[in-house]
Amino acid sequence: MRNRHLGRAVAGLLAVALSGALLSGCSRENDGGGSGGGGGEDDGEVRIGLVQINQQAIFFNEMNAGAQDAADAAGVSLTIFNANDDPTQQNQAVQNFVQQGFDAVIVVAIDVEGIKPAIQAADSAGVSVIAVDAIVDDPAVSVQVGVDNEEAGAQIGEFVADWAEQENVSPSIGVVGALNSYIQNLRKDSFVATVEERGAEIAQTVDGENTQEGAATAAENLLTAQSGVNVVYATGEPALLGTVAAVRSRGAEDRVAVFGWDLTAQAIAGIDAGFVAGVVQQDPRAEGEEAVNAAVALAGGESVEERIDVPVTVVTRENVDDFRATFE
User: Starting at the edge strand that comes first in sequence, how are the strands of the sheet with 231-234 ordered?
Assistant: First the structure.
C-alpha cells in the first residue's frame, strides 16, 4: 500500500522537460468537485487522466464507460486521452497531465517498458499512477488493476484441453495473435504451454497485428496453409473478430472450433452457430471503475491495495445469455 506525498511535486516537475498543451484526442468528461489531491489545483477539484490505447475496441470503450461512471459517482473530473495505438502519444499525454497538475494518471499501456520514463516522472511529481490491464512492473505504479493475463491464458488452455477430451478431438491448434502486444503474448505463451502439456499440437502461430483486418487475413492464410487445424485460439478482440470472419468466409464452421478473448456481437453469433466454443470475457467496466476509485482514494491520501484483480469468465453456449444485452 502506498500514498503519494505532495512534497515531491516540485522536484519531479523540475526533473522533466514538459511542454505543450494536452494532445488532441482528450475529452474532458466530468467537472464535478472533490477533495484536493497530490497534483490538483487550489480549487480542490480532483482531476484524473486516463491514457487509453484506442477507442475502436469495445473493450476499451467499456472501460472508459466504467471509469466515467465511477468519476461521476465520486464527483471528480475525468479526462480521457485516446492514443490511437501510438505509444509515443501515450508518453506525451502522461507528461502533459503532470504538467497540468492532475492528481492521478491511469495508464492502459501499449509499451510497458517505453511508458516507464513518463510514469516515473509523474510519480516524482507527486502524481499517482494506476496501471490497468497491461502490467507495468515499476515502483512508480501505485496500483495495478486488471486480469492476470498469464493465468487466464492457462485457464482457457485447460478449458480447450478439457473440451477436446469431451469431444474426442485430437487438437491441432492454430493461434491468431498480436505479436506487438505484451498482454496478448502473455495470453498466447501460457495457453500454448498449457495445451502442449496436455498433449495438443500447435500447428502454426500467425500475427494479426491487433487489427480486425490483419487478423482476418492472417486467419484465412492459416486455414489455407494448415488444412488439418481443427482449433483456432485468438488472443484478443481484433484477433477473435478476424478469426470468426475467416472461418465463415472459408466455410470452415463444421471443422474448426474457435476459442478466444473478448465478446462481440459477432462472437456471440458464432457461439449461437456452434463453432465458437469458448470466449474469455473480461470485465472492462469493472476495471475502469476500480482504477478511478483507486485514483480518488490516493488523491485523498488513503492507502490502496497494490494489486486489484478483476476475474474473467469463459463464455459458452450455456452462459452466453448473461452477456447478450451488452452487445445488442
Answer: 201-207, 172-177, 231-234, 257-261, 276-281, 313-315
13 has pLDDT over 70 = no
To which residue does cell 497491461 refer? 134
CB-count burial class (<10 Å; 0-12, 13-18, 19+) for 279: buried
Amino acid at 247: V
68-112 confidence digits (pLDDT tens)? 999 999 999 999 999 999 999 999 999 999 999 999 999 999 999
* Cβ(236)–Cβ(262) below 8 Å: yes
Q: What is the pLDDT of residues 287-300, one digit of tens each?
A: 999 999 999 999 99
Beta bridge partners of 19: none
* Higher local confidence (pLDDT), 44 or 21: 44
pTM: 0.73
The single residue listed with the C-alpha cell 459477432 is 266
Write out 187-213 in H/E/C secondary structure.
HHHHHHHHHHHCCCEEEEEEECCCCHH
Return the C-alpha cell found at 94.
Answer: 502522461
* CA pair distance 92, 81, nearest whole angstrom: 10
For residues 258 and 276, what is the distance between their CA atoms, to the nearest angstrom?
Answer: 5
